Amino acid sequence: MKLNERSIAHYATCDSPADHTGFLRKRVERHHHHAHYHHSTSYQRRWFVLKGNLLFYFEERESREPVGLVVLEGCTVELCEAAEEFAFAIRFDDAGARAYVLVADGQAVMEAWVKALSRASFDYMRLVVRELEKQLEEARKSLAACCKSPRRSSSSSRKRHLSNPALLPLQEKPALLENGYSTWGSGGGSVSGGAACPDHDEGHVKPPPLPPRRRSAASSAAGSSAPGLLLAMPESPVSPETACFSKLHSWYGQEIAVLRREWQERQKREHP
Amino acid sequence: MRYNKGELLSLARQPAEKAAEILMRVPKKGSVLKKRLVKLVVNFLFYFRTDEAEPIGALLLEHCRITKEEENVFSISFLEDPERKYCFECASEEQCQEWIEALKRASYEFMRRSLIFYRNEIQKMTGKDPLEQYGISEEARFQL
């Protein structure tokens, strides 16, 4: 299958913000051709860069191109029973897919990575955005209601908000918003907000339109599209379509908390 | 560049935000428009031969530009090489516009900007940071 590798490599190395970076040791996966093959586990130190739902790894921090990429959809991130301390694994729902075993050099580093990777999926981001859209809508409604009362001591800046075209309904489409082009353009061909966005005064941009909706994944009971939740949860997995973001979010937290406790207990047992 | 192909193939089989048979031309010398099944899943655009289960290819939709070309036609190009265009000819102008809108919003970067925008607006209106209750307010990717 072809990929637009050059563009992907460019995205990996350009100066758009990374969500998490750092050195990790990555377990080398070998194929065993012989029954008697003695496989020793080895690790390679790589520089990892997390951008959105993509985890890139480079041979060196200064390398101009990633060695590899892990697409983080439909995966779970868990602490793992490797011989190494501070090891965690990225596992996929896909039965045949191999896991990525990564080793950090400390507890805090490991936890930070597990946290960042668990929340890296597109669906998670979409849920947060939807939740905030709702909150903004509610805030606007209650603000509008408040401002009707004459005693309301709203500041002039609030009044300006209400008349600001940026507060038009969310369906209003921005004049020109392209996929990351305007923000991270390195000069050259980038579209700056300028002429295309007439509402760009004092940083008030028209609200972006609603993100596209994924068709319901309710039919896929195994929820292979559900981000990273499918460990030992007895209840049915929460479909990414759920409106209850806080529930989904606390499930992530629970999972990490449980694994962390288990790890700590195991540490106590093994190192009394 | 290595990548977890199995996972991408699995993603290609997921329910799509949008899918249609569209004529597509890749930016290769001498290439022509061919009928493809084009499928948008998260920030990837997969394209299949119409009778095959496995996609021919996938485009990661980050740092890309979606441009309306002539009637019924739009193109996708990427930041580092804007003249290299993947062209798509739709059945109608309406379909063309729908795809343009959907693709413009299909990137993680777009969602990040939306989130930052909403967060900022809510904070200005209510004085409260909406991300705090989720414990993600300090994360670098959500900063203005």
From TrEMBL, chain A:
Pfam families: PH. CDD domains: PH_Ses (cd13288). GO terms for cellular component: clathrin-coated vesicle; cytosol; early endosome; recycling endosome; trans-Golgi network. Residues 17-122 form the PH domain. Residues 217-232 have a biased composition (Low complexity). It comes from the Eukaryota. Keywords: Cytoplasmic vesicle, Endosome, Golgi apparatus, Phosphoprotein. It is found in: Early endosome; Recycling endosome; Golgi apparatus, trans-Golgi network; Cytoplasmic vesicle, Clathrin-coated vesicle. InterPro entries: Boi1/Boi2-like (IPR045188), PH-like_dom_sf (IPR011993), PH_domain (IPR001849). Residues 188-241 are annotated as: Disordered. GO terms for biological process: endosome organization; receptor recycling; retrograde transport, endosome to Golgi. Transmembrane segments: none annotated. Plays a role in endocytic trafficking. Required for receptor recycling from endosomes, both to the trans-Golgi network and the plasma membrane. Belongs to the sesquipedalian family. PANTHER family: SESQUIPEDALIAN, SESQUIPEDALIAN-2. This is Sesquipedalian. The lineage of its organism: Eukaryota, Metazoa, Chordata, Craniata, Vertebrata. The gene is Pheta2.
From TrEMBL, chain B:
InterPro entries: Boi1/Boi2-like, PH-like_dom_sf, PH_domain. CDD domains: PH_PLEKHJ1. One of its GO terms (biological process) is receptor recycling. Residues 15-108 form the PH domain. One of its GO terms (cellular component) is recycling endosome. Gene3D superfamilies: Pleckstrin-homology domain (PH domain)/Phosphotyrosine-binding domain (PTB). This is Pleckstrin homology domain-containing family J member 1.
